[in-house]
Amino acid sequence: MNAPQVITQAAGAASVPDVLVRILADKEKEVAERMATTSQSEIERAAAAAPPVRDFVGALCQRIGEGRTGLIAEIKRASPSGGLIRDPFDPPALARAYEEGGAACLSILTDGPYFQGKREDLEAARAACALPVLRKDFMIHPWQVFEARAMGADCILLIMAALTDEMAAQLLELARSLDMAVLAEVHDRAELDRALGLNTRLIGINNRDLRSLKTDIATSEELAPLVPADRLPVAESGIRTQADVRRMAAAGAHCILVGEHLMRQDDVAAAARELVEAR
Fold it and tell me: How many CB atoms lie within 10 A of CB 1?
């Protein structure tokens, strides 16, 4: 496969935020370097040897069926907007705490330059619990999809603002061929319309504005009602309280992805349980 190309035409080059353009440029170089050390055939063999896939969508549906919140609890050390979030940082202990708190799934950052993540975080956290795991990273090349499965990921993130429709469809179909789920992330109505053209049930609605990095959960209140009943809207970012969870549920988003709020708590199991039981 050819070296990845930074994608700025997803919804028109002028509409892609500068911060995302910078991240994608760095990711292009990073992936090219990793591809130079691990060949396509090697990464495919590693993906084939990975542990069996856990049912990401099924885990969320089970929580919803129980009348609880489908919580995707995130493990991350830092973020561009929040700086260093948790130190000391123990992914296996956090995974076990989230499982104890009733989370349906995990989301684990593997991006190094902007989130201080690494693949070992995902591998260690997944080994410590029975929860399905989302690899949270900037996916721009098919090689990364095989890499995600090799890590043990059960789901990948596709950010519609970073991808053309053609590349999003290519990455999604590859993930599905490896039995992984796909969370297609959107920030506005135009991206939602594009995401609904993909063959995935999971539609992530990110409440964080990629230009200002500010969050407003009204974004999910606006977009979640537009998601068809056969899809699962997942409200992301800015969710901190039981009242926030109930607002998301009222809009139709019974699944949420929460990271920084949980990472800043002393008792992450109790904090997760509070959100799971909010409905």
Answer: 9
